[in-house]
Structure formats: structure tokens, C-alpha cells
Amino acid sequence: MDSPSPSHVNWEALDALIIEFIKSENLIEEPPSPPPSPSSYSSSSYQHRLLILQIRRLLQSGHIDSAVDLLRLHAPSVLDDHRLLFRLQKQKFVELLRKGTEESRNSAIDCLRNALAPCALDAYPEAYEEFKHVLLAFIYDKDDQTSPVVNEWSERRLFELAGLMTSVLRAHLHAYDPVFSMAIRYLISIHKGFCFRQGISSPITNLTERLLLEERDLPATPQESLFEAPPFDEVDIQALAHAVELTRQGAVDSLKFAKGDLFQAFQNEICRMRLDITMLDELIREYCVYRGIVNSGGPNASSQGTLLAHEPSVSNQPESESTLSADVSLEVRSGSNKLADTDMDSPGTGDASIQNPEAEERHPFGSAVGSHEDCSTSAMYRHKASKILQRNKNRGICDRNKRKRWKGRHEVQVNASMSEEPQVSEISSAGDASGDKEDTYEMMLAVKELANKGMAAEVVEEINDMDPTFFAENYIFLFQLKRIEFLKLVSVGDYSRALKVASSYLGPLATRDPALLKPLKETLLALLSPNEKFSGESLPFHALSTSLQVAIGRKLGIEEPQLMKIIRATLHTHNEWFKLQMCKDHFEGLLKIDLLKQVDSSLLNDTLSKSLSNDVCSNTCSQGTATSSSKMHDDGSSPSQVSSTGDIAPDEAAILKVMEFLALPRADAIHLLAQYNGNAETVIQQIFA
Question: Which of 103, 119, 52 is nearest to 323 (CA)?
Fold first, then answer.
């Protein structure tokens, strides 16, 4: 696999993943439609994710009975696991004592007699000892930091229990996060690990450290008495362990819980990683506005890059719970065992005991002022924008009315029976973007859409009208556009105009840059096949249109979305990591990472990539990157490498054996085996000698 250069990312595939994400999370306004049937997967998954979030919030705030009521109503079989029931009842006992009133103490005694003690008898072997230990909470104060039950009093236990129940319910209800949400976790995790192991300074650390938190939910574990461990394939165990940073035993337990399903186990583990949902929504909205997926009206998207770049770091403590700051919050009446009104807060609001304490310091989306504001408000750009927009309106290009409107995460009330759609109440936006800024976006998007459709001559016309100096500074784009125009003319038999384009533009540009001579010769070969119909699918218009969009956006003072930088950098390190591992990623198909790399680069040669050298990865991730000299088979299923010593690398069984016994990454196991002629037993003996 070649490393994706700054221009070699399939942005159309990313668009599809983003659209699926914002639809599944109800972040955009959709036209009214009949209520979905109960069997509707998307609706059911969204409802289940809301349910899980409600239960999570209830547990975090100490309202155990309300959480148990919801579990009995929507997932009663989960409570058949007496291990979970015991932990819930033990936490309920502690929370009743925490209130400190005579009534709550009497309730704690009732809980002890009627629920906790019976559960302790058959929950798990250590449960009765834990039961006796928690009784000490009667005589030791919650503020006594030297007491033997200080851990039982710790509010951290609430967050651990909430995380555990989230993991269990997610797997039980198959309510996994959207594919993009899982993919971004996975890519960032690999990016962090790769940069650490290779000693590389990541250019996106400020984003990744705040987006992917260090905290993970506790894993769901199988009931040993109900499901004995089968002989799992060692390939699956090692693939899972190294993909999500588990011990070998942790990978085995995860596979046991998933009943041997590797991909389900992977989804269970990847969803345990915690994201800052507020920040993720901001990144996605910025990207959607930039790409023309949603309307640019509303918060100023161009300024968001500045907002995200200078945002204070997010605390990784579980008490902060920044991942939930934009989601469902619960208000439960004191002393009540029933779920009260449930609402979904706007970003940065909610229960202070659960929210990120720094959330209030964040500005509303788009409240910051972009560093290039003056560019879009000039009279020159306003005049040019009106002309370009009028022409494209006549062409049917860039109709902003056809775009969806971003609504974000709204206040939602979920019916207790889960039979009705959430009732959405509108949240006022942070403010509308100025008309000048919207026009600037429309100019950029118009050029992008024209390029997407292969309308090369029109693209050149619009760009020249917008900025006559653009092609002088970016002549590679002019060459590619005129190349498309030449091929279109040849395909319709207009050879005279085609040759005029070649002699007027392609020839002089190739004279200026000898690297263009080869693609020029290949282009002229089209004259040998005049009957071959020109097909837009034969040329990567989407890749060219995105590269043009980035370059023109910069000219207009529109910053590239931070999400594009994250994807470029993480895809690059994903490739480099699996080159070092000398194997194929088992999970890239599940997360559609392989689609993000499927770019036809026949039109975008190396010189075009060089023209984008200011993009992330061009002089950051690629620097200091250690690449493997190994080559994979076409299917990527097994390595066929040449080691650094020139010998053929060991077979797969030897690699897995060393990985298993020494708990080593694949690359380290291969390097060790290469030193001992591929003999796994010798390697193990030498290590333990």
C-alpha cells in the first residue's frame, strides 16, 4: 500500500461516512416522514443509544433505582446477570448512605436486607467478602480519606459502573456507534501509538489529545459458568489484542463475551474508547459546511478552525465526562425511583457534577472571528461573488436551498416505552454567518462542484474571474484542467479545438515543468482512440475538485477543516503502521478505512501532490517515518517480506508463537525471529535464559 499523500484521500468516501453519521445521530433537519416501523434498524439503534445514554447519566448521578427501572423495562435480561445486579445494589446502598438523612439510612438498611445480601450469595465468589466490607460504610464517614472504605465512597465508582453498564448494554442491544465514530477512534489510537513508538512529533496532537480521551469504559466480561472458553484462533486473539491495546487475556475475555465473533468483539472494544462528543460535532459541522453537505447559514464555520485550535485541553478525569456534554442529561426528582423528564442539552451545558468543568469556558460554535474575515468582506469579492453565483445558478450549480440544515444535538424527550420518535425542541443557534462569508463559501463550492462534474473550461473561467493570479501560482491545476478539456474535445471528435488547447496550454506548461512531459504524452495518446467515449468515471474528478477547493479556499481566506488534517495524518500513519507489522489490517474493511484510501491517482500525478506541500503530512508525518521494505501479497493476508538481514521472514505460526509467549507487537516478533533464523523456540529460550 502506498502512503496517502495530502491529495490521495477519497474525500467522497469520507463524505458518505459523515452523512451516515449525521443522519444516524439526527444532527440535521430531515423532511417530515411517516414514523419508522419498530424493525427499522437506524431508528432502533438511535433509540437504543439514547436509552444507554440515559442509563449512563442516571448511574453517574447516583440514581440507581431509576436506572434499574429502565433496565427492567427495556433490557430485563441484562439483570439476569447477578454480577451486575450485585454491583448495582451495592452502589445503591452507598448512595443512600451518602444522603446522610435518617430516612435514607433506614432505606439503606432495607436495601441491605432485601436486595444486597441475597445478591451477594450467588453473584461471584468474592461477592460475599465485598458485601461484608461495604458494611463498614455505616461507621466510616464519606469524607474520611483514611477509612478502609474510602474507595467505596469514591464517586469514581459511579462512573466506572456507568461505563460498565454502557459496555454491556451496547453489546446486548447491538447499539454500536456510527461507523465514522468508530473509525476515528481507531485511526487516532493507531496514530498515537505509531508516533510514540517511532519517536515522531505528531502535527495534530492538539486535536487528537482532546478528541480521544485516555479514559475507557470498563469492559463487559462473560459469565464463566455459562460460557467456557473455546480454542480461539491465535490470529484472532493477536489481531484484537494489538488493534485495541489489550493484553492477551483481555482479548480472550472479549472474544468469549462476543461468543467468538471477532468483529463484534472489536466493536465492543473500540466503542469503549471515549470521545469528546462536543468537539467531534464541531469538527463534523465545520467539515460539512466546507464540503457543502449542510447549509453555511448559521454559526460561522470558517472561524471554527481557530476555535478548535485554541480551545483549552479537556480533562481526562471521569468526573469531567466531557464525552457527554452534548448529549442526554437527566433530571431526577430527589427520592423518586422513576425517571423524570429527560432532555438533551446543547453543547457545553448540563449538570455541573457530570459535565466537563472547562466546558463553560468554551465559546459557542462559530463565535470566534476568523483570521481572514477582511478578505471575504471586501467590495471586490462581493462583486465577483454575485457574478459567479448568478452564472452558476443558471447552470444549476450549488443550489444552497437543496442542502440540509444543521440542527445539532437538541433537547429530546424519549417516551418510556421507546415506541415514539423523540420530540425535538429547537435550540437557538449561536448566530448566523454574514452574507459576505456565505457568498465566499458559495464561490468556493461552485468551483468544487464544477470540477466534480468535469466542467474544466468553466472552472478555468470562474477561477480567472475570481483571481487572475491563481493559475500563475498553481500552474499544475491549470495543466490538469486543460488536460480534461482536451480529452473531452477528443471524445466528441473536435480535434481542432483539442489540439489548440494542447498547443496553447499543455505544451507551454510542460516546457515550464519537464515533469509534465510524461503525462502530456499519455494525454496525446487519446488521439489514437478517437472512438473511445470520454467517461467522467475514468478520471478522478473528485480528487482534483477537493485539491482545488483547498487551494481556492486559502485564496479566499477560508481555512481547511481540522477534520481533513486529522484524516490525512491518521491514514498516513495507519499505512505506515501496518507496513511495520507486515500484515493487513483485519478491521479496515469493517470501518471502511479501505474506502478512504481508494483513490485513482492516474490524473493526479506527483507534481500535483507537490503543489499541496503545505498540507499536513507532506512535511510532518512523512518525516522520520520508518517504513518497512516488506511487500505484501495482493490479498495482504500473509507476509512475504525480506528482513533487514536479507533472509526470508519466518512463517506465520512462528510469528504468532513469539507474539503470544512474549506479548510483543508483530514487528518486534518478526525482527527477533530474523535474528535467530526464524526459530521461535530459540527466540523464547534466549529471552528467558
Answer: 52
Supply the DSSP symbol for 534: P
Distance, CA of 316 to CA of 313 (rounded, Å): 9
Are 96 and 205 in a shared domain? no
CA distance 14 to 184: 11
Looking at residue 224, what is its pLDDT? 64
Strand pairing of 423-425 and 328-330? Answer: unpaired
pLDDT band at 164 (very low <50, low <70, confident <90, very high): very high
In angstroms, how far is CA 448 from the centroid of its own chain? 25
User: 412-438 pLDDT, tens per residue?
Assistant: 444 444 433 444 433 333 334 455 677
Per-position b or e across 518-551, b if 16+ CB within 10 A of its CB: ebbeebbebeeeeeeeeeeeebbbbbbbbbbbbb
Is residue 301 within 8 A of residue 289, CB to CB? The reply is yes
Q: How far apart are the first and last CA of the chain?
A: 39
Confidence of residue 493 (pLDDT cuts 50, 70, 90): confident
For 651-661, what is each residue's pLDDT tens digit?
A: 777 777 777 77
pTM of this structure? 0.77
Q: Does residue 589 form part of some domain?
A: no
Which cell numbers in the block locate residue 616? 499536513
d(CA 44, CA 42): 5
Cα 508 to chain centroid, rounded: 44
Centroid of chain to Cα 11: 14
Range of the domain at 638: 631-688
Query: Is residue 189 located within the same domain as residue 168?
Result: no
**Residue 593 three-state SS:** helix
Residue identified by cell 517480506 is: 641
* Domain match, 329 and 298 both: yes
